[in-house]
Design brief:
Elements: E1 14-17, E2 22-26, E3 32-35, H1 50-73, E4 81-91, E5 94-104, H2 110-123, H3 125-130, E6 135-138
Parallel strand pairs: 5-6
Antiparallel strand pairs: 1-2, 2-3, 4-5
Length: 139
């Protein structure tokens, strides 16, 4: 379900120059980075790249969603981490991405951890935005 413009609480604004081989910066100046293709894709690999930025955003957002569901279920997720692996490769339309989300949740058993991941995947805004568009695997 989409949100309406009147429901927006915050809008991030970033501008890229020269696409995957240039620079990207946010309007407020808090993020200003050089972007270069990774060596695996023929680039210099000296800067960051869109996949790293997406992985950083997705992992942070998913960790937040994990916190929401943990509070609802009274699960202890202290000391937990969430890692997002974002791969890029060729597909029938040019290029596509694939994501693997893994979590380390030391204070819960495996079954509880898996249930928390599944619940977080349902409420995470990044998961909602990508659902049905890219492959996301939970580990």
């Amino acid at each position: 379900m989409s949100i309406q413009q009147s429901d927006v609480l915050y809008t991030a604004v970033a501008t890229a120059e020269n696409g995957r081989d240039g620079r990207v910066a946010t309007e407020d100046g808090r993020l200003d980075v050089v972007v270069n293709p990774p060596k695996e894709m023929g680039g210099s690999g000296e800067g960051t790249n869109p996949e790293q930025l997406f992985a950083a955003g997705y992992s942070a957002c998913f960790q937040g969603a994990l916190g929401v569901v943990a509070r609802q279920t009274k699960a202890d997720i202290s000391g937990s981490t969430v890692t997002a692996k974002v791969g890029i490769g060729k597909n029938g339309d040019g290029f596509g991405i694939i994501v693997e989300i893994s979590a380390h949740i030391p204070n819960v058993d495996t079954a509880t951890g898996r249930a928390l991941l599944e619940q977080a995947h349902q409420v995470c805004p990044y998961s909602k935005a990508t659902r049905g568009n890219i492959s996301v695997t939970l580990v």
